[in-house]
């Protein structure tokens, strides 16, 4: 794992190098004020990370604002190390990451999820086009004969765009709501899934196969579902239904970038867009969010 990181970051050594890297990723054409769009700012360099004050409207912007690192006290070097480890074909789990970058499990868990959500956000913008194949599938199916859903079993749709020779170019896997189905042999409605993942203007043909009850099974897509299931089981030792979709999006994100600059794309995805917060990740209620904010404010006061 260490050699992977060294190879990915051979050009960068110090925290200052990563500050420069993030600046280039966040503002590739130079500074832009988030409030007024002005191009010039004063640098306030007395903090751990530079702060920029717009010379037109005086708005202050942190380098990590609007990135996955927003609000984090973890050094940028460790963040970029975590990002590069997420490009490994086998992925990285929170325990492995906490050992690799020497942070607590909770910090590693949060970093992993924030990076995964950056992948998910980018995935949402990439619709399938051209010749599209779709199948339903079950993840973590049981071998017993009962038709009742088991807690671990999950219903998903797998879709792929393929070239004329049938070569898969891009995939999407979406968890379906199994609780609206009568039993584990019933397949969910495919139309909502199609409208969610297929670009109607650029789709040439959509072929739907059903896993159960007749019809021709699409073994190529079922094999992809099997690979996703194996990856989740191997690296993450199983995933809770609550977080399953974001792990599936991570699998699709890496799968779809076999012939693309994966590390560069992931660094860019992590350097822009909204950042998911810890309360949002754990699905906290309004009362819990208030307590969390209050605790954070008190901790900040004690520290300052
Ligand atoms: Zn401004």
Quick take:
The protein contains eleven helices and seven strands.
Q: What are the defining features of this structure?
A:
binds zinc ion, single chain, 41% helix, 7 strands, 4-stranded mixed β-sheet, 304 residues, alpha+beta, 2 domains, 3-stranded antiparallel β-sheet, 11 helices
Shape verdict: elongated
Mean pLDDT: 86
* Radius of gyration computed on alpha carbons: 22 Å
Low-confidence sequence ranges: none
* Spatial order of the strands forming the largest sheet: 6-5-4-7
Number of domains: 2
The biggest sheet, with number of strands, parallel, antiparallel or mixed sense and barrel status, is:
4 strands, mixed
User: Strand pairing plus helix content: what structural class?
Assistant: alpha+beta
- Strand residues, percent: 15-25%
Quantity of strands, as a count: 7
Instruction: Please state the oligomeric state of the protein chains shown.
Output: single chain
- Bound molecule kinds, no repeats: zinc ion
Task: Give structural notes.
With 304 residues, the chain is an alpha+beta fold. It folds into 2 domains: 2-124, no CATH class; 128-255. Helix content is 41%, strand content 17%. The chain is built from 11 helices and 7 strands. The protein has helices spanning 2-8, 15-26, 76-85, 94-101, 105-124, 191-197, 219-236, 244-255, 262-270, 278-281, 286-303, and strands spanning 41-44, 51-54, 60-62, 128-139, 154-162, 168-175, 198-209. A 4-stranded mixed β-sheet has the order 6-5-4-7. It has a 3-stranded antiparallel β-sheet with strand order 1-2-3, with no helix packed on it. A hairpin with a 5-residue loop joins strand 2 and strand 3 (60-62). Helix 4 packs across helix 5 (105-124). The longest helix is centred in the middle third of the chain and has 20 residues, at 105-124. It is elongated, with a radius of gyration of 22 Å. The two termini are 37 Å apart. The relative contact order is 0.13. The mean pLDDT is 86. Bound molecules: zinc ion (ZN). Zinc ion binds next to loops.
